């Protein structure tokens, strides 16, 4: 009897050693999760499969790394919890790299940088103001001046934003009490409510807004005011990893570097997002 | 375990309790009135009236509450011009009223079936006795049929009340910040789903515990016929003592 226990303990130890060793090198097959409801970055196609900029980019990166990838769809607010408990290995869901998220998970280098803006009716005060440009929230003076100019133009309006996003954090930090912030689970839902007239405007990434406003029922709306980046928006959009998967993250960093260098990200983003979101090398 | 975090989360979630209770309270009150009317109609009316009512009950009992809230909020939102023409857009514009409407229609459908069961269980002898005393139809329902039916239906209706309190958690999908909505918000800020949902679950448990106690008290009050009368009880107690 005692022999059996010793043998079991020994084999358990050696098994742990083997799996421990495997964790040092990146795995051969991984599962990548995306939200599937954030067109054109990632969305669920008519065939039920994920499609979009990030899905094509994920396939390209996997081919570069020679890793077999399965892409799954997971609700936005469950992405980080599910990653940490090991339901999948990577998040590529237009997720901004922020300090808050970095406390829980790890990120690759950014593969895209896309400013956020308001979308409002063409007849609204903000749309008529002619404000524009791009502001980095890390340069506080300039950004605050621009925000102060916007405040009176949107005062008292209801603004839809996706919950648990940096866009929501931005509104909460700079427009709390100025606008009535209404939080939605997906951007598709706040789009519907903009068309239905339940909200006066939206706050989201410019590329996502541009895709929505291209549809005929949004003809009376436009992206207005300046675009914001940096600060609460973090350091651009990156792929998320468990903190322990450092080898996998490093492989992704190398592959993203190559994709930036050879113009793949520029080509894919122009194809899907109608604008170039390539981050600096 | 992080007690301070639990405490903070619990206090923030308590902020959503008034809305949760409002949604459940209003929809259950209106739903109950509707359910009584529906149950009486289902029990008595001509097939011409009963058939469409059956259709409504089948529709709302046969589809998930989540789908109903979604269709009423986002689905009807697509028909804004016609709703505006009818002058009811103010109602459908607000997520609050959309959820109340969905919950009310849902609970009325379930309640109608529960109360119909209660009505059917009223013994024919009691009705005949009332009629023999010369009671009018209205008086018969008020004095005999409805009280008996309510008493019979109470345990099942209590179940429905608890289900509705939990059903309000779906209001968060149309941007309302009741207990579950606030829980989602906290999770999005802290990414600590397990602790937050434990707190949210505890709040629903406390609410429903209070409701089950109230229902048990009501059931006790309504069923003196199942217990020996006080006189008999004190007599047996004396007998045992002697």
Task: Write structural notes for this entry.
Chain B: Keywords: Cell inner membrane, Cell membrane, Membrane, Transmembrane, Transmembrane helix, Transport. Chain B: The chain crosses the membrane at residues 21-43, 55-76, 161-187, 193-218. Chain B: It is a multi-pass membrane protein. Chain B: Belongs to the binding-protein-dependent transport system permease family. HisMQ subfamily. Chain B: Residues 17-215 form the ABC transmembrane type-1 domain. Chain A: Keywords: Signal. The complex is a heterodimer of chains A (281) and B (242). Mean pLDDT of chain A is 88; it is low at 15-23. Chain A has two domains: 28-113 and 236-273, D-Maltodextrin-Binding Protein, domain 2; 116-231, D-Maltodextrin-Binding Protein, domain 2, CATH 3.40.190. Chain A is globular. In chain A, the strands form three sheets. In chain A, strands 9-13-8-12-10-11 form a six-stranded mixed β-sheet, sandwiched between helices. In chain A, strands 5-1-6-14-7 form a five-stranded mixed β-sheet. In chain A, a hairpin with a 5-residue loop joins strand 3 and strand 4 (50-51). Chain A is an alpha/beta fold and 281 residues long. Chain A is built from eleven helices and 14 strands. In chain A, helix 2 packs across helix 10 and helix 2 (53-65) packs antiparallel against helix 11. Chain A is 43% helix and 21% strand. The mean pLDDT of chain B is 91. Chain B has twelve helices and no strands. Chain B has one domain (3-241): MetI-like (MetI-like fold, Orthogonal Bundle). Chain B is flat and about 65 Å long. Chain B has 242 residues and is mainly alpha-helical. Chain B has helices at 3-14, 17-44, 47-62, 65-77, 80-86, 89-93, 95-120, 124-132, 137-167, 179-190, 193-222, 230-241. Classes of the chains: A alpha/beta (281), B mainly alpha (242).
